[in-house]
Specification:
Shape: rod-shaped
Strand order of the largest sheet: 5-6-7-8
Low-confidence stretches: none
Structural class: alpha+beta
Number of strands: 8
Number of domains: 3
Largest sheet: 4 strands, antiparallel
Mean pLDDT: 81
Distance between the termini: 102 Å
Length: 171
């Protein structure tokens, strides 16, 4: 009994092994594909290996084309997702606009107040401040001697320049 190989797996299609023809009968046989050609060729191990039928070969070819198309579609979708991710990140960055580094402002205020008060200070400013010239925000100041104050910070330009004034120190 012979089984057919479709290039990827053994199929359920089978047929009986043909009887070996005498060499004289094969000498006049035509080439593969013609009606007089044998339905099989000997393999390196001496057992017959059937040729796939035209329908089986067409099905195998179609399966291979489909696999290649699917792989191409997956690559295309992956590239489109990557482009969308990069574009989305750029859009979010542009919508948020530049931000002020408030850690620098906190350090500047803390150093100035500590020098003036002669005591250590902790300054807390908002984490997110847009760089918009003329806008203001407040920072809380805690001085180690127990006093508190507020710094009103005004942006002088859209590059991070600031001025500030201290208000309402309390004991």
């Amino acid at each position: 009994m012979l089984r057919w190989w479709d290039g990827g797996a053994w199929t359920d299609h089978t047929h009986a092994v043909p009887q070996a023809a005498p060499q004289a009968a094969l000498a006049g046989a035509a080439s593969y594909g013609s009606p007089a050609a044998p339905a099989y060729q000997p393999s390196a191990y001496g057992s017959p290996v059937p040729f796939p039928s035209a329908e089986q070969q067409a099905a195998a070819d179609e399966k291979e084309r489909t696999a290649k198309k699917r792989a191409g579609a997956i690559v295309l979708v992956a590239l489109l997702l990557l482009v969308a991710l990069v574009a989305g990140t750029a859009l979010v960055s542009s919508l948020n606009g530049p931000r002020l580094n408030t850690a620098n402002v906190e350090k500047q205020i803390a150093d100035d107040v500590a020098n003036a008060a002669g005591a250590s200070t902790v300054v807390r400013c908002p984490d997110r401040v847009d760089l918009v010239a003329g806008s203001s925000f407040e920072c809380a100041i805690d001085i180690s001697d127990g006093r508190t104050a507020t710094a009103v910070v005004t942006l002088t330009d859209d590059r991070g320049g600031v001025t500030y004034r201290i208000e309402a120190a309390s004991a």
